[in-house]
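Quick start: read one record
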Amino acid sequence: MGWVYFIILLAVLFTVWHFAAIAIDRDIVLPNFAATMRQFFRNWTDARVMNGLFITLSRVVRGFGIAVAIGLPLGILMGSAKIVRDALSPFMNSIRQVPIMAWIPLALVWFGMGDGPSLFIIAISTVFPILLNTISAVMGVDPNHINAAKSMGASLPKIILTVILPSALPNFLIGARLGLGLAWMMVMCAEFVATNEGFGFLILNSQQGFQFPTLYSLVIMSGVVGYGMDLIMRLIERLLTSWRFKNAAENK
């Protein structure tokens, strides 16, 4: 039934848009709904748009991969060792308070134009949700499970692989899901100023060219792509932690 309500809500929203655009009669404020939708569907077969989308998605995947490669092991280390957590927490909490847009001038100085600034912005905005959720998950592992593994002669790597990682996985996936959403948003910010190609650059280009139906259609398209990425992460979460959903269904 949820999909039915969603379709009804969408129909109401589009109807309001249609009549509001006619009443306002200014594309710069709200373009014609039909023209925007035509452009939206045309975007999916436009080679330039799809090439820009592919470039941006490749940046998101690489930047997200860097964040996972840093956030997961560091989160396990900080969650497991209080001395490391106490030493790194002030530094980490200071860095994560810096606004993302403040990093862009530095990223341009460090990496120049191109992929470098985008990857840096994605990684630094994505790593903290992953890191914090992993730390929280590791700290929440039942000590009795760790002690039981130690009593059976398990080594530290074995304990990490068989006790800590499975226990931390649900929270890590929540952090990864939040991080991926941030990555998709932040790559747009980076592409507005730090590159001359990609999906974000196309959005900026259409705004500067006063192509408002194209601008709105690209913004809607970015929302659809972001929603698709979130669905993929939810599917991965269900596959890797299927026991959580089975338990929830049994408890209903």
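The chain has one domain: 33-243.
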